[in-house]
Each structure stands twice: as C-alpha cells, then as structure tokens.
DNA sequence: CGCGGTTGTATCTATGCCGATACAACGACG
DNA sequence: CGTCGTTGTATCGGCATAGATACAACCGCG
C-alpha cells in the first residue's frame, strides 16, 4: 500500500543543505525545531535526549557556515534562552520544503524502459526502446550506451483518442497509444496502468481527471509526457561480465 | 551558476532504499558498482581504499535484507571472484534512477508563497496567498495554519494571453496572469521570471517553448500549474515566540 | 544580594564504525 | 599436487562522534 512500485524496497530521499562543506541535515532540522519550541538550547537538548554541550557546539559549527541561526542570550529572567533568528527560520523552512518535495518525489511510481542511446543533443537524448523512440534528459550517457529510461507517473498525461492536444505541445514531448489494463482509484489521485505494446506504463491522474475520462479496462487511450520529466540513466552493467 | 535559487545554500537530495530496517545508500551503491567493475570484492575494496573484510560483511548485511546481491565464489581460476546477481543489478539500477531523480528535483528552482490554509479536502488544500487562492497537496497542515506554498519551476507552464487552454485542464489547476520581468536563456531550458502582483514566479521552459513564445521583458503572460505539483508545507514557526 | 536557569567551555568516557591484520578454506589450472 | 588469488572469519586498534560531567560566566528578578 505504501509501496511505490515493483521495486520491492521502499525508496526515500533525504534533504541536505550544503554551505562551505558543512551539511545541514534532518538531525539539524529537528534540533532547530526543538530550540524554537523549547525556547532554549538546553531545553531542546533534554527534550531530544541529546547532549546539551554537543547541541551547542553543533549550532556553532552550523553558524560558522550558514550565518547566525540562533539568538542565544544568557542571564536574565529564566536564566536566559535562545530563539531562532530570521535566517534560522528561513533555513529551516527551506529544508522543510526540500524534504517535502524529495519525499513526494521518492513516492511517485515510475515506469522504466530499457533502451539504447540513439542521439544526444546537449542535455536532451533520443532513446530507442521497445515502444519506439523517446526523448529524455540525459545524464552522462553517450550514443550507443544501454540505458534505462525513467518516467515519473505524475508527469504523464492521459487523454482519449481524438481529443485535441494542448497548444503548448512541442516536439520535445513523447506520445504513445495504449490500452488501459488497470485502474487503482484513490481518494485524490488514481494510478492507471496503460499497456503500450505490452509494456505497462504507470500514470497518476487526479480524481477530477479520472471522473472526466471515466476510464475502464480495455479502453484505448493515448498518453503524453514531457521530455524534461524523463530521465535517462546509465545502466549499472554496461561493460564486461 | 550552480545555485538553484535565492536560498543561498546548495540543496541536495540523497537516495536511500530501505528494507527490513537496512538502508542501501550511496556508499553501498558505489561498492556494488566497484564489485561489478573489478569482478571481485577484494579488488573493489582495494580500488575504493576500503577494508575488504568490512566490504564483505557489509554485503552480507545487505543481503540479509535485500536478498542475494552478489554471486561470490572462492577457489578456481584466478582464485575465484564475485559478480552481481540479477537482483543486485536491479537494485543498483533502481538506486541510480532514484538518485538521478532526486538530484534533478533538488536542482529545480522554486517559488515560495506565504499563506494561510483556507480549506482542506483530503490531500488537497486551498491556500490564501498574496496572489489569490491556490491549490496544493497538503502535508500535515490544518485550516488556519500559516504555511508556505512551494511551486516547482518545472511544473509551471507559461502561455500568452488569449491562447487556448489545453483540454485536460481541470479545476485542480492554478492560473495566474503576470508580467515577464526576466529571462535567463539556457542551452536546453530557460528560466523565466514572471511577476504576479509583484510576486516573482520562476518558470522553467524548454528551448523550443522559449522560441515559440519569444518572450521579452514586459510581456503580459499567463502561467498555469497543476495542484499536484504544489506542496503545502507547514511553517517552522507557528506557535509562541 | 543571592537565586535560578541558561549560555559558554573544557574534559573524560562510551560507543560504533572502519581499517588493518592474520589465518583457514577453497578450487581451477598448470 | 602445489600455486595463487579469492572468499570466509575472527580479532585488534584507531578515529570520529556523541553523551556525561563539571565549572565558570551571565543577568533579570524577587
């Protein structure tokens, strides 16, 4: 249910912000969040079950690279305390955005095509696959290489045959015709499986699109996706056996 | 040049495959790749400057969770050797795909809107922002929360006013009108900055679309993006100061 | 003026991971 | 039948990180 595809293992993404070689990761994010909630580094450390001295030195190390993140003051009412600076909040917000997007990306089902590079034009590559030639963004592959073409299910649009194509369609898009072989209706999004020459494509559509298209198994449909949402990844095993 | 946006620090994503609590990360991927290239675990370890015994025990630990990954045999011509199994190659391929997609995602410029949650319907949320109400995928936020709305520049489509909208448009899309305030032409993709009520949106378009639209600063355009490509992320600082 | 809880700072210790090393088992090949 | 380079397996030591502890400095407040 929580699985993304037939890959078996669960795939995840972890966000990292890097500045001057210092990495701001999830552990740092929870630390800053705890400081914000507790109002002090000491309180945050004890809340997290971490060493206060370590937490403090970690914050100092981060600040050396990212600038002032925590406004710390000692003495005064309550003995002092610490609050996030505007920069600290901004950094934390940015981390949260990145982490949210990466987590969402890692969850997206994918369809994978095996192919060979036919042509490379800058970042764009043309790949020969079982369903014809497709275009995608290249990643360090050269003409003739055996590659895998990765298409995110959220980038694919499904439409019924005869339907007019949108005006911003460019030659950099991929189009194929196929047959619906499965519909997994969800609350807000549905996963549709479309077979193209026997190759199953996963397509993510919104509930509204699902209602509009009213897809059923056996329906003939066309699918379309942007080349920029297609990644060409070199095969792990190219050379000698 | 390599920067993604005004966030300052470089954002990255690291892929991880998880099974039974065991994490397959980039270090493991390079190990498997080296084993494939060297034809032996010993050769791979020395190539990477890592301990052979550690590499071996790491592979065993991985195999306990992911299944047989490396076909190891001792004795024989050359003293033996190791090769990746089909499962091993498949796992490595999957890791490479995920890493490629996450890296690409982390590079995408973003536009961020501050807003408050107006309505939540399942996974979809309606947010009040400076440019009006927008829809996006919710992530653990509730009505009334102060949130940040994150829109990936690659998900935004730009089109000239009066142009017909595509047929798969649903009410789950967001539309706005604005003015072009900057064009950063690239080789295969260009980054366009569109101001909507003074709020700058970053839009990524292909070179072909750039040519077709022939955008110049001051042009009045409309932008559109799918709600499913919009993430609603809770603000770090909601509660007391 | 002392109290209290926090920030600074230094140091010791535990822990876990990794490299290094050593040695046995293995089996095709000359 | 010995050689050779590999896979198994066990153990030791180093190193980096984090927790634990201790103590000084700070300062609003009662």
Automatic annotation (TrEMBL), chains A, B:
One of its GO terms (biological process) is molybdate ion transport. GO terms for cellular component: plasma membrane. It is found in: Cell membrane. It comes from the Archaea. Residues 169-234 form the Mop domain. InterPro entries: LysR_HTH_N, Mo/tungstate-bd_C_term_dom, Molybdate_resp_trans_reg, Mop_domain, Transp-assoc_OB_typ1, WH-like_DNA-bd_sf, WH_DNA-bd_sf. Its main location: membrane. It is a peripheral membrane protein. Keywords: Molybdenum. GO terms for molecular function: DNA-binding transcription factor activity. The keyword Ion transport does not apply. PANTHER family: DNA-BINDING TRANSCRIPTIONAL DUAL REGULATOR MODE (PTHR30432:SF1), TRANSCRIPTIONAL REGULATOR MODE (PTHR30432). This is ABC transporter.
């Amino acid at each position: 249910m929580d699985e993304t595809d037939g890959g078996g293992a669960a795939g995840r993404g972890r966000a990292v912000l890097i500045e001057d070689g210092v990495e701001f990761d999830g552990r740092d994010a929870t630390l800053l969040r705890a400081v914000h909630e507790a109002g002090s580094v000491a309180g945050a450390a004890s809340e997290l079950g971490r060493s206060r001295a370590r937490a403090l030195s970690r914050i100092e190390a981060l600040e050396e690279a990212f600038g002032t993140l925590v406004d710390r003051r000692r003495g005064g009412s309550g003995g002092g305390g610490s609050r996030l600076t505007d920069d600290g909040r901004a950094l934390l917000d940015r981390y949260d955005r990145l982490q949210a997007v990466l987590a969402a990306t890692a969850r997206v089902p994918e369809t994978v095509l095996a192919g060979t590079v036919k042509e490379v034009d800058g970042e764009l590559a043309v790949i020969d696959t079982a369903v014809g030639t497709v275009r995608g963004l290249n990643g360090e592959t050269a003409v003739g290489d055996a590659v895998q073409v990765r298409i995110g299910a959220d980038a694919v649009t499904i439409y019924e045959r005869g339907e007019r194509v949108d005006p911003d369609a460019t030659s950099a898009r991929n189009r194929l015709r196929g047959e619906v072989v499965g519909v997994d209706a969800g609350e807000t999004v549905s996963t549709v499986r479309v077979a193209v020459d026997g190759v199953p494509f996963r397509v993510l559509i919104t509930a509204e699109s699902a209602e509009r298209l009213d897809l059923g198994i056996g329906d003939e449909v066309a699918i379309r996706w942007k080349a920029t949402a297609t990644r060409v990844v070199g095969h792990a095993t190219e050379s000698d056996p």
